[in-house]
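Suppose you are handed a protein chain with no further information: no name, no annotation, nothing but its sequence. What can you learn? This example shows the usual starting point.
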Amino acid sequence: MTGKRDTEVLRNLAAVDEVLRQPRVAALTERYPREVVVDAVRTVVDRLRREILAGDRRAAAAEVTAETLVPWVEALVAMAVTPSLKRVINALGVVAHTSLGRALLPGDAVEAVVRAAANYTDLELSLASGARSSRQDHVHDVLCTLTGAEDALVVNNNAAALLLAAAATARGGELLVARGQLVEIGDGFRIPDLLRESGATLVEVGTTNRTYIRDFERAWTDGSRAVLRVHTSNYRIVGFTTEPTVGELAAFAHERGGVMIDDLGSGALGELALFAEEPSVKESVAAGADVVTFSGDKLLGGPQAGIAVGGAAVIGVMRHHPLARAVRIDKLNLAALDALLRLYLDPTGAVERVPTLAMLAAPAEVVAARAEKLRAALLAAGHSGLTAETVAVVQSVARAGAGALPVTDVPSFAVTVAPPDGDAMGLAARLRLGEPPVVARIHENKLQLDLRTVRDAELQELAAAVAAALG
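A reasonable first move is to predict its three-dimensional structure. Written in structure tokens, the prediction is:
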């Protein structure tokens, strides 16, 4: 309820025109579109009025004059004209962190994106014939070469690739999948819910930890159309477990005129020891899977994309399905993926040139040396809170991220900082709000900066950010 004091404040609340006549606000209209500035002024005035009427803000009459509202307007305009997406220094030790945009693109891919963004391209034009072509042509051959598949198709992410595969092969029929593979992926999305949107009827087979071919035999009916294997890339079931191989599932489906879909999720093509337990795209194709789907931005180390490779018959059906248009890949991600895939033609070179692979493959001693450099830079910053007693190099554990390699520890090194006031959470918050923002872990009430995901070129900047946050 509005009291007498609030009524007086509302009478003194500056009008939009009054604020616009303030010199600093008038100057904003010369630098930015007038509509943006006017909208900011209206937003500030309207919000104050609503808060005062609701009793959420207690203000004096002198605090709502045109002059006092100017800094709020300036801040709102600055926010409106500044791109929201910020570059972040990742000191979490999670290489393909979903919240931080997953994979960093190699230089070749970045150049390809810039070239495609700044120029017209032959996206869907055959320069040889002058006729319209398919955007899929740009990555088709290299994907077939890398995976041994007959055909290939790319869409905007792996969930879309799986949805398209299910819709093209099992819509109106049954899709069989082992109960232990009904995973939940990022942001609460679940494979069963996704697959139901394909128009297929999902049939759960076996038990959570043990599923046999005979379970699929019992579950198959005249209405069954396809068998799906989902790689549990973001968790592991260990111990008393059994599941059919890709080859067994493919043979089972083919004997009954059905289709076998293998969703690998991460889709590692790099030759790293860390990937030893990851299912191989080549092996799935060779084992007879009709469609193998995987992501472009996880262990592959590229842009967001869903990749489907396999037999020409099934991939061809997917290519001409109506959903293919709805989930098609855009030209910038296609340009990046094209450049990335060609790096994999030289497996050794790919490990060096693809940032995701390079970070995961970096020897522990290289990361340790980077940590020592950061510690030295922090101590050289001259801040009273950064001393030999408060800054230390420790062993840590990094992760692949993006739901991949969930039980694989990647040995790493980190620099810990014990803030003088003991408030590690506060220090981490100030780092996130700095320029550039820095994200780091908290361990035993100390800030922990994992160096596996920090590049050499970022060390001095990171040291300065920590000193500034302490100050």
